[in-house]
Amino acid sequence: MSQPGRRSGSRGKGHHILIKGGKIVNDDQSFYADIYVEDGLIKQIGEHLIVPGGTRTIDAHGQLVIPGGIDVHTRLQAPTMGMNSADGFFQGTRAALAGGTTMIIDHVCPDAGSSLLAAYEQWRNRADSQACCDYSLSMDIPRWHESLREELEALVKDKGVNSFLVFMAYKDKLQCTDSQMYEIFCAIRDLGAIAQVHAENGDIIEEEQKRMLELGITGPEGHVLSHPEEVEAEAVFRAITIARQANCPLYVTKIMSRGAADVLAQAKRKGAVVYGEPITASLGTDGSHYWSRNWAKAAAFVTSPPVSPDPSTAEHLSTLLSSGDLHVTGSAHCTFTTAQKAVGKDNFTLIPEGTNGVEERMAIVWEKCVVPGKMDENDFVAVTSTNAAKIFNCYPRKGRVAVGSDADLVLWNPKATKIISAKTHHSNVEYNIFEGTECHGVPTLVISQGRVVLEDGNLCVTQGSGRFIPRKTFPDFVYKRIKARNRLAEVHGVPRGMYDGPVHEVPASVRTAAPRVTPCAGKAAAPPVRNLHQSGFSLSGSQADDHIARRTAQKIMAPPGGRSNITSLS
After folding, report:
1. What are the phi and psi torsion angles at 50 (to 5°)?
2. Which one, of 103, 25, 34, lies nearest residue 448 by Cα?
3. Which residues share a beta bridge with 46?
4. 3-state secondary structure of 45
5. pLDDT per residue over 122-136, tens digit each?
6. What's the CA gap between 14 and 416, in Å, rounded?
């Protein structure tokens, strides 16, 4: 899947590193051992390793050695109203590495009606020249039409993209209808990809936005007031329902409210193949700031779905994440400067949406989940790295400390502390929505592609060194259950006797035939069954069997098989 003229192969060649004395932490086990890294890969794990001369030794005593984080949702350099977000691929991936994240999955945002493949190439060109950590791409579908099927197939088979996002919000811009979602989910399932959804009821939001503006509410508080939490929960329920009918795995991005999380958790417990993604903002802060008298501070929190104003939501989400009802963490990192946000100073609907979080994600998860004892170090690795690698099919290359895996490693000090501040963060914006949050547990050293990129608080990155990571289809972690359900999906009609009761007359002008629906390809088609309700009997005129000679009257006391009560309601 490498592209002509594009960089491929491992970086970090010639770098030999021995990490000694650390506690290796994977999602399923922790143990003490040394790690030898060469040419960007983990070559040896064990004790008393034999390594070549000139190998650099890193002392990891007292620290955890964990897989580099995978941020499953970023929007770097996303276009909005003719503007690009403040953090492009260089600044965004630099901030990611500073926080212990060594791979991102960025969302391609095509213009409505434009080519998905053209947008993919545009994103690749930007990322290849700027990214300083490994990256992959997920594709947004802004407007569905039948011709996109071929592009989806090309992206999956030739370009290494295996996830596609549809929108239930942004009416008349990005929003899909339910029937379009069903069609898209069927197409995605047949390709073995992951269906993602931005879940909000766009119709209600548009009406609420109009109502807020009519009431004279133009500030950032109008954003959260026009996005009540119920519209997120309702959309999550509807998306899960449609995905279940299509037998398609579903991934819900940006779980922001208690109601939405509960709907998803309940569906998962009932067996739905659905995954939920809380983000740094929904885990680490609350939406009370929308009412700040400082307009710039309030605007910094504007994102969709909005950060919940309920102060208990973050703790609830962290509990569901710790218990396995939610699965991965993203940041949805998409930042805009105060000047860019101020485009909507007189109309909250024009405020560019997005918050920071790619740098803070891992520290926030540790602080909110591990420090209070909700999850252990293994669960932390699962929700910040391993689960993402399994869902999006880049495991065990990513998401695991093992021989043969990429040398994306983080030395994590659970005893170190850090206070988050815009004065020290690596983002290009004046505000940090987590300002003043103290985190107990931080990355002290980060290795990306076998190179040390963060040490003692100092970043040393190379622009354009990031590699594109192609992802294959049909990840076992997701599709084993889908395939099993497909085998059990056969449906059969009920054999009945011929209906011989009265039929109400319906005027021909209003009589409509049942629509002919092409069955969803992934569902097992029912075998052909004769329609036992069809009859040659007509209420008037000649009959279909008039040519058959009639016998003289013959009284039948009981028909073969017994009497029928087909016309009886009891």
Report:
1. -95, 120
2. 103
3. 34
4. strand
5. 999 999 999 999 999
6. 31
The answer to whether 140 and 150 have CB atoms below 8 angstroms apart is no
Residue 92 has phi, psi (to 5 degrees) of -70, -45
Q: How do residues 182-222 score in pLDDT, each as one tens digit? A: 999 999 999 999 999 999 999 999 999 999 999 999 999 99
Structure tokens at 556: 């039948």
Residues 97 and 448 sit within 8 Å (Cβ to Cβ) = yes
User: Contact 92/126 with Cβ under 8 angstroms?
Assistant: no
Nearest residue to 265 via CA among 179, 356, 327 = 327
pLDDT at 410: 98
Instruction: Give the chain's end-to-end CA distance (angstroms, integer).
Output: 64
C-alpha distance from residue 407 to each of 38, 45, 402, 411 (Å): 8, 12, 9, 12
In this prediction, residue 514 carries a pLDDT of 54
Closest CA to 256 of 329, 191, 192, 161: 329
| Residues 430/341, Cβ–Cβ less than 8 Å | no
- Give dist(CA 163, CA 179) in Å, integer: 20
Question: How many CA atoms lie within 13 Å of 163's alpha carbon, on the beta-carbon side?
Answer: 29
SS3 340: helix
Q: Which two tokens stand for residue 71?
A: 């941020």
User: In 3-state terms, the chain is what percent helix, strand and coil (to 5)?
Assistant: 30, 20, 50
Maximum C-alpha span of the chain: 110
The amino acid that residue 441 corresponds to is G
E-assigned strand segments in 310-365: none
**Residue 93, token pair as written in the block:** 């991936």
For residue 454, the one-letter residue type is L
Looking at the DSSP assignment, which residues form a beta bridge with residue 59?
20
Euclidean distance between CA atoms 252 and 254, whole angstroms: 7
One-letter amino acid at 440 equals H
Question: Angle 17-18-22 (CA atoms, 0-180°, nearest 5)?
Answer: 130
Cα–Cα distance for residue pair 44/399, rounded to 1 Å: 17
Measured distance CA(450)–CA(433) in Å, rounded: 32
Rounded distance between C-alpha atoms, residue 299 and residue 352, angstroms: 9
Residues of the chain with pLDDT under 50: 1-5, 7-12, 517, 526-527, 529-530, 532-541, 544, 548-559, 562-570
What is the rounded CA–CA span in Å between residue 42 and residue 17?
Answer: 10
Yes or no: say if 182 and 379 are a contact pair by the CB < 8 Å rule. Answer: no
Selection from 415, 404, 324 nearest residue 366 by Cα? 415
Dist. CA 338–CA 297, nearest whole Å: 9
Provide the β-strand partners of residue 41: 38, 406
Q: Are 413 and 63 in contact (CB under 8 A)?
A: yes
